[in-house]
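Below is how a single chain appears once it has passed through the pipeline. First comes the sequence as given, then the structure the pipeline wrote out for it. We keep one example in the README because the format questions we get most often are answered faster by looking than by reading.
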Amino acid sequence: MADTSNEVEELLFKGLDWLRSKHHIRKGLALIVIILLLGLAGKFAYELYPRHYELTISGGGMLTKSHHLAKVLQEEASRRNVTLTIAPTAGSFQALNDLNDGTLDLAFVQGGIDAVGYENVRQVASIAPQLIQFLVRGEVKTIHDIRGKTVNLGEKNGGPSVVSNQILRFSGLVPEVDYAETNFSDEQLLSMKADKLPDVIVQVSYAPSATVDFLVQKRGYQLLEMSFPPSLAMRMGWVADAKILAYMYQISPPVPAKDIQVVGVNLNLLANKDVDSYAIAALLPVLYSPQITSRFNFPISEDKMLTPSGFPISDGTEVYIASKQPFITAQTLDQIKGIFGLVMSLLSIALVVFKWFKAPEDVGEASLKDDESENDSETPNPINTIATNISQLE
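Resulting structure:
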C-alpha cells in the first residue's frame, strides 16, 4: 500500500513538473484567471449601476379607484427609473389571465378569487381592503329586501360578482333564484336612464368612489349597511371588517346618515413570476411612499404587505424585505468573518500556486543573475586599482 502511494505521488509530481515547464499552458491558465476576475468585477459594476425598468400594469376598469392608483403610481415611479405602461382590463379575471400568460407584468386585483389555475402569478403586496358597497333604492332597506330584485354585479363571474354572490348566499339569498343578476359595466350604468337602472348595484372600491358619487347624487341611491359577522371571516379568508363614514357621499340629506359597517376585501398587487425581481424591489418603495398616500387620499401601509392572498410571495417582494434589514447584524458579522477567512486562505493558496507555477528556467535565470552580481562585487574594478597605485607612488 505504501509503495502504491509513493508511486502515485511520484507520478503526480512528475505531471506537475511537466505542467510547470510548459510556458504556453501557464499563460493560458493566467489568462483564464484574469478573464474570470474581470467578469466578476463586471458583475459587481453592473449591479451598482442605476438601471431603468419598463413594466406594464393594470388597475382594472378606467373608472375604478385602483386604476387611479395605477396612474398615480405610474407618475411617481417615473421619477425612480421605473416606467409603467397602464393597460386597462375589464376585470380581475382578465387581469389574472394576462398575468398568468405573461402578457401583463403587474396588476391590482381584488381578493377573494381562487388562486388555482394561476401557477405563474405571484403576490407582490396586499393593500388595505376595498369596500363592498351595496347601493339600493326604493323599498330596499335591508339585505332581505333584495329578494325578488335585480342586482348588478358587474362583469359576469368577475371579482365583484364572485365575492358579492358569496355574501348574498351566506345571507340566505340564492343567485338566480332569489334575485336576478345583471352585469352592466360602470360606463353603461352612468349612461343609462334612471328608470332602467337595477334595483341594487354593487361596487367594490375605496371610498369615495366617483361612480358611487354619481349614483347617489344624480340617481338617488342609498348605501345599505352590511354587518360584518366574525363567522363570515372564518368561512371566507378574504373578508375584512370595514366602514363607510357618515356624509361620505352627500351632506344634505346625508349619505350615509351615520357610520355604517360594510364588508371589505383586500386589494392585491400581483405580478407574473418572471418579472425582474429588482424591478419589483424598485417599485415597492414608490408604492409605500408618502407621495402616493397623499395623492391617492388613502393610507397604504407596508404592515399589510404580506396579508395572504392565496398566491406565492414574489421574489421581488423578498428582495425588497431583505433590503430593509439592518446592514450590520450578528449574522452579517459572522458572514464577514467567514468571508475574510476564506479570502485570506485563497490568497495564501494563490501565492503558493504562483510560486509553484513559476517556470524553472525563470528561477534559473534569477539565480544566474544573482551569481553574476556576486561575482561582479568580488572582481576588482580596474579604475579603482589604477587610482590606488597612483596614490601609492605619490
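The CA atoms of residues 23 and 359 lie 7 Å apart.

See the next section for the split statistics.
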